[in-house]
Design goal:
single chain, alpha+beta
Length: about 210
């Protein structure tokens, strides 16, 4: 083999045996080049083995538990009271007694007095107010259809077209108001005020009757 051509282990060129060196890369003779190539191969295998061993060692380590990896402690949702508990607590309370309505009956409605009722539409109604002044008998009645009427009658005289007046009225504040042309009859605060425009014609106290 010493006298035959040889191939360079590094560049693969065929070299002259007399030169003893590679003419392409000026490397060592074939014997020494093979030794050097072998050392390089062994070094690469050693490095690869160390790398594989490191990977296997790293993969074999146990991974930490997920709960311990976070910086915050595990949160537990607090238990809320159930609807059943709330209902049970509410049912334990004793509701206040409802006052009975049987002991407080509404006052019975009084019929409109006959002298005033006969002038009402339909001839009957319910008395909302019956009172008198020094000279007059005042009656306020409501018909079954809901209309309100003011009746003024001279005291001590039989009711007639000349001694009484019937006017439509309406509720106003704590009393009633009836209007007849320029005249206004106002019942309020226990008094009857008769006025014409801004002029007060009379202002009399009312006394309940019956």
């Amino acid at each position: 083999m010493a006298g035959s051509p040889w191939t360079c282990a590094q560049c693969g060129a065929v070299n002259d045996p007399a030169a003893r060196r590679c003419g392409t890369c000026a490397s060592l003779a074939p014997g020494r080049a093979r030794v050097r190539a072998l050392w390089v191969l062994l070094t690469l295998m050693l490095v690869a083995g160390v790398a594989v061993a490191g990977v296997l060692l790293f993969a074999g380590r146990s991974k930490p538990a997920p709960a311990a990896s976070g910086p915050f402690p595990e949160y537990t949702t607090p238990a809320l009271p159930t609807t059943k508990t709330v209902v049970t607590t509410a049912n334990a309370l004793t509701p206040p007694a409802t006052p009975s309505t049987s002991t407080s009956a509404a006052p019975a409605e009084k019929p409109c007095p006959g002298d005033a009722a006969r002038y009402l539409p339909g001839g009957a109604g319910t008395a909302l107010l019956v009172a008198q002044t020094a000279k007059s008998l005042i009656t306020v009645c409501k018909t079954p259809d809901g209309r309100v009427f003011y009746d003024g009658q001279a005291r001590g005289q039989a009711a007639s077209d000349d001694t009484h007046i019937l006017l439509p009225a309406e509720a106003a504040g704590d009393g009633f108001v009836a209007v007849n042309g320029d005249y206004r009859y106002t019942i309020s605060g226990g008094r009857l005020v008769v006025s014409a425009g801004s002029e007060v014609l009379s202002d009399d106290a009312l006394t309940p009757v019956g």
